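Field reference: sequence -> structure
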Amino acid sequence: MARVKNLDQITGNLKNFSFYTRKGSDGIIVRTKGGATKEKIKRDPAFAGLRKANKEFGGCSKMGKQIRMAFYGLEHVAEYNLSSALSKLAKDIQKTDALHPVGERDIRFSAYRFLLKGFDFGRTTRFASMLRVPLAYTLVRQRQEAVLQIPAFACSFGLNMPDTRTAFSYFRITAALGIVTDMTLNPQTLGYEPVHDKLGQGYRTCSTEWYSTQGSVSEQELRLTLMPESVASEGVTQQTTSGSATKNVASERVTLSDPLTVAEHPYPIFNDSDSLVLTVVLEFGAPDAFGHIMPVRGVGGGMVLGVE
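Structure field:
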């Protein structure tokens, strides 16, 4: 891979060269055009191995997306492109399948879910070095619930980002709970699909209030529960405890396919092919033109705290 140095910021095409940028890199990457046509890759027997590799690559990309859906909307704190890192993790898991031939190998995330625990959204600055307080949590697979316990701390001790504290006056802690299910190749569509259709697309997020970076945070818990839409529509509320005050937060709708919900059970079917993913992020905020505090992109950190 060639990189451009000491030139103006050029992106786009120039004769047989393509110039582009990529998140996580400060330079401009250049590559040449050319190669086999799409039709030749699709039909020519000489490209059979490439077709198998492309099929598995598509499955890994889908698995990476499914993992990102477990903390959807919180990627803005990441320092780099999480997609490629999660796709690589899925590929490493896929390589362990010795039962199927190349091009048809399953992605049994549930067997290697421990590999995702501790996955950090930063490369130069780790989440644990930014938020220097011990976070405890519990995950209950049977009810798809999670509780994040945040101890009381003074920001002068708990936050280790002096530059950010100077630039942004507010921060909050956000937790996300989602489901990731294994993926297998559908022999009819020849594409990779989750074992449970759409099960991995349900997620919940819960945040503390915005705190001043010069103040302190009281001891509190963030509670998250995944549930079918029918239960959420009955007025079930989620409680977020902040010190001595308790706030009721209206439940968000969770998209789950009907075959997964059994009438006599208030929760969707959940088996060994499914994994609960609990993520925590540290967001910094700044007031907008109307005085509302909004998260700042590219600032903060996060990590996958637990997987069960």
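Note: The chain has two domains: 2-32, 40-307.
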